[in-house]
Amino acid sequence: MSNLVRSELLKIRTTSTWWWLAIGALLSIAMAFPINAWLFNTAVGGNAEDIGLTGDAASAPAQAANLYTSGQYLGLMFVMLIGILMVTNEFFHQTATTTFLATPRRTTVIVSKLIAASLLGFAFWLVTTVIDLGAGAIFLSLNDHGTLLGEWEVQRALLLNLMAYAIWTVLGVGIGTLITNQLGAVITSSVLYLIGTQVVSLLFFMLSSWLDSVAVLKWQVLWPAVASQVMITPGENEMLPAWWVGALVLIGYALVSGIVGVLITRRRDIS
Amino acid sequence: MSDGQSRPNDAQIVVSGLTKQYRNVLAVNNLSFTVQPGRVTGFLGPNGAGKTTTLRMLLNLVTPTSGTATIGGQRYPELTAPLRHVGAVLEASSAHKGRTGINHLRVLCAAAGLPRQRADEALALVGLTPAAKRKFKGYSLGMKQRLGIAAAMLGDPRVLILDEPANGLDPEGIRWMRGFLKGLAAEGRTVLVSSHLLSEMQLLADDVVIIAAGQLVRQGPVEQVIGSMAQGVRVRVRTPQAEALTTALAGGPATVQTDEHGTLLIAGVDAPTVGRAALGAGVELHELTTERPDLERVFLELTAGKAGIR
């Protein structure tokens, strides 16, 4: 098994795809960080109401947590794409043949991909977090807030963010086994991630006003991208489920897609 | 390989009652044959005969509807170290286009638990060392085939299975491949090669397995399969006086047929006999050729009417 994980990591290292996605992840930090820094200053500076933030969400620790996880929204999409490509590349370049000749036990191959994917998710989290920590600590110190790294709320956000990275990469592998067409899988999942979430929010908002029930909004957590947001958001209220609900939903998706992916791959004819 | 010589059955391929039913097509129909170590076996059939499907079922890439295929008595997924036992070359394009040749092999070495330097050795074996660090998309078709063979040789296997390995090779490459595969068989390994290049197969193969429409047509040593055909040696004659020559040969053992171009195909007598008869009858000859049956003729007769799209 360790041989296979090593082989999967070597597959990723020996092509340029991961490099482009890493650049994408870095660019998303570069875009998100200034916005989050501005949000911090506005919220903590007493103008939280102007940008629709109230209560806990406007506190310095909550805003610091947001700042220290800058670029996470697109970063998660990029690691999901890596997970997808880990599988669809095998079919696009017809390397599934040599892969399954070297290891005819297909469950082992997919499980190795899942392990390699979560290691890769960890690496992406580590690099983006180190950058965010450096930039965030400098920004906060320069603005006389201290680093705020001692706050549990901040530490919690960093750790849950790690979990999010690992789960989304695994989820990507699962999606790749379900949709083996490379272009199809990449486009479908990106569109669902970026636009699907807005559509789902809108649908739930309409449903909520039609049923005259705010609690309905909680069920948005069933959508993976929302679950991911819920997981890293502290606190809960009548519209927002607790963080662990989001975590369970996300892990559920990763498990189901992984298991279904293994079952499908075991039966598939490679030709 | 000493291993292969001491336990020859370890490298025997046995296909037994193999059947693959796709939604609309019966690709392989109750196919049985064996492949012996120490010989090159040509796996022949018209396009769509089920050659590739059969090889893929043998390698567990395609699940048979029924029947079994074993290598040394074991199904492919039961082999403990498949790449050390079996090497396969299935399609020339199965490597990531953005990955270098050497890295393609290193990935496989890692997966199979083989030492990393096997990648360099296998690349040297097929003469691809100068292109080791070039990306796969820059390889010619012939180089891709060589890389495929290098991948198959990584584990120094006792059994080699190749699907159309000569595709895209230039004459020099084809000659290299012939020597390479014959050398492997001479070492006691099992070599199963599918192809539709019949003249090449006649030079390369010791045994042939011929299939058509998913079914076995003939199996055996090449000479035996050729010799089994009803029509043996025949003499081909072009003459403006066909009737005079036919008359001159009448009464003897000769049987004369005429093809669509008016050329005579004479069986039962040899070329000197025909020449003497023509001289005696004052018949003018434009061509007098001895035709020996070859693999191509045998193949076309055996598979006649069974080729094409199903």
UniProtKB/TrEMBL annotation, chain A:
The keyword Metal-binding does not apply. The keyword Transmembrane helix applies. Keywords: Membrane, Transmembrane, Transmembrane helix. It comes from the Bacteria. The chain crosses the membrane at residues 20-40, 73-93, 114-142, 162-179, 191-211, 242-264. This is ABC transporter permease. The lineage of its organism: Bacteria, Bacillati, Actinomycetota, Actinomycetes, Micromonosporales.
UniProtKB/TrEMBL annotation, chain B:
Transmembrane segments: none annotated. GO terms for molecular function: ATP binding; ATP hydrolysis activity. InterPro entries: AAA+_ATPase (IPR003593), ABC_transporter-like_ATP-bd (IPR003439), ABC_transporter-like_CS (IPR017871), P-loop_NTPase (IPR027417). Residues 13-238 form the ABC transporter domain. Keywords: ATP-binding, Nucleotide-binding, Transport. Pfam families: ABC_tran. It comes from the Bacteria. The keyword Transmembrane does not apply. Belongs to the ABC transporter superfamily. This is ATP-binding cassette domain-containing protein. It comes from Micromonospora radicis. The lineage of its organism: Bacteria, Bacillati, Actinomycetota, Actinomycetes, Micromonosporales.
